[in-house]
Specification:
Order of helices and strands: EEEEEEEEEEEH
CATH topology of the largest domain: Jelly Rolls
CATH architecture of the largest domain: Sandwich
Strand order of the largest sheet: 1-2-5-10-7-8
Length: 179
């Protein structure tokens, strides 16, 4: 989860929560199970201190580890890329307390089908494996901003002004021709 689009990246290593800005979009993340994020050059995971889940010192998500996240604007979720490290590694992205957006069951990229997520909506990324070897690292989460309605109104207004200017120029050219 390195943000390379705007500088050297954000560092959540050792933190329970944090925010980052990439491409003008702010993502806010909070780990659960009383864990802290573990971020290295090769992976991103959570070290849980809860006794009910597998504790570790790796840059991976183990059984029942994960985080909640939200954005400061409406976005389209496009894909998530994970690296799987063994066992029956699996995970899910879902609306917090609601339906599953995508199940993650294999190494590589999972399409999120341009799922629209409204500003401030809380999502949940969870490892759903069943043992200490069922772990994976989150490599990337790709989103794009959805333009505000006012952006469309501005573009529509500019198009109308352009059309009116073209019509006026044509009318003036017709009137200027000698008979």
């Amino acid at each position: 989860m390195r943000n390379t689009s705007e500088g050297p990246g954000f560092d959540l290593d050792g933190s329970l929560s944090g925010s980052s800005i990439a491409g003008g979009i702010t993502i806010t993340m909070t780990g659960f199970h009383d864990g802290s994020f573990n971020q290295t050059g090769t992976g991103f995971g959570l070290n849980s201190s809860a006794s009910t889940v597998e504790g570790d010192d790796t840059d991976e998500f183990d059984e029942n580890e994960g985080f909640t996240f939200s954005f400061d604007t409406t976005v389209l979720l496009q894909n998530v890329t994970v690296s799987s490290f063994g066992g029956s590694s699996a995970g899910a992205i879902s609306f917090d307390g609601g339906s599953t957006i995508a199940s993650i069951t294999a190494t590589g990229m999972t399409s999120l089908s341009d799922t629209q997520v409204l500003q401030g909506t809380v999502l949940r990324f969870t490892s759903t494996g069943s043992g200490s070897t069922d772990q994976f690292s989150l490599d990337s989460l790709t989103v794009s901003a959805v333009p505000e309605p006012s952006t469309y109104a501005t573009l529509g207004g500019l198009a109308i002004l352009g059309f009116a200017a073209t019509q006026r120029r044509r009318r003036n050219q017709r009137n200027a021709l000698p008979a």
